[in-house]
Amino acid sequence: MAYLNKEIDYALQLMSALRGHDEGVPLSLKAFAKDAGISFLFLQRIASKLKEAGLVRARLGASGGYFLSYSPEGVSLANVIAAIDGSFGVVPCVAGFCPQAKMCGHKNSFLSLDQELKVFFASKKLSQL
User: Fold this and answer.
1) CA 92 – CA 58 distance, rounded (Å)
2) Rounded to whole angstroms, how far apart are CA atoms 41 and 47?
3) 31-40, 97-106, 118-127 — which is least confidently predicted?
4) Distances (CA, A) of 4 to 60, 67, 69, 77, 90
5) Helix orientation angle between 107-123 and 77-85, rounded to the nearest 10 degrees
């Protein structure tokens, strides 16, 4: 069975924790990593990608941590996926390259499915998790 990758899974867990965290109080990445059983170093890389994408902001120092940059209604699952992986596709051929294009008649079906998933991910907001 295929899944969204662990980075996206952990990014969604972190974003959900930030959504439920007290407003104005930063979430300690170290404490969240320990509570969630996630490698702190791996989570730091994920948080860095989310920060670079503008989805979270950080406060440095002993009382530092992470905050959401937007309200949970303003962040979609597509935003989180894009921050972690860039673009999402069901199969490689939707990006235009397919070594079996001449013998495969499924590209249109995959393109349609890909578009439906993109619409779905864009429509689901962090507030709905």
Assistant:
1) 35
2) 10
3) 97-106
4) 31, 24, 24, 12, 10
5) 110
